[in-house]
Amino acid sequence: FLPRLVAALEEVDETYIMVKPDGVQRGLVGEVISRFEKKGFKLTGLKLFQCPRDLAEEHYKDLKAKPFFPKLIKYITSGPVVCMAWEGVGVVASARKLIGATDPLQAEPGTIRGDLAVQTGRNVVHGSDSPENGKREIGKAFDALLRYYHLLNLSDMITNLALWFKEGEICEWTPAVAQWLRE
Ligand code: UDP
Ligand code: MG
What we know:
Belongs to the NDK family. The chain is α+β, with helices and mostly antiparallel strands. About 45% of the residues lie in helices and about 15% in strands. The chain is built from eleven helices and four strands. It is globular.
């Protein structure tokens, strides 16, 4: 199954973008979506979701040892988030630029955090930090694994590796403007 998994991983760049609870409460969902739409990336998944504690801990597992980890988990589970999958060549790094530095006071004007936030612990939005994490957070690669190899006994485990979207929640489509965005 490895070649197929590698193909799924390499097929297309995708990133997981999430409007955090402060962004939802402050009415910034449309503003955040709008910035990615206007840039020209393709939206492939979108939902409002109350994040359970175990998912928040899994999503931020690399930060488990940090002193701010408990506060971060409380923040992310404090209200609904908006989960998004965006696709396009170079989307992971570009989205990080559109979002801006982790500390909103250091983030450049023109970025989401630079324009809309003042504190690291209330920085409005998440974006995957690498193509591998984009795949892990969205979950499409694991979908492909499930579809092609019917690992029935392992399916629960694999589904758990796909963090934010379930099978059927990612929509493959071709925007009518595609030819006006890329030559
Ligand atoms: N965070 C925090 N205090 C810190 C560093 C990070 O509260 O000193 C929070 C902040 O919400 C940040 C998230 O933890 O967005 C994840 O941290 P990371 O270093 O991955 O930053 P990001 O990738 O979101 O820019
Ligand atoms: Mg990060």
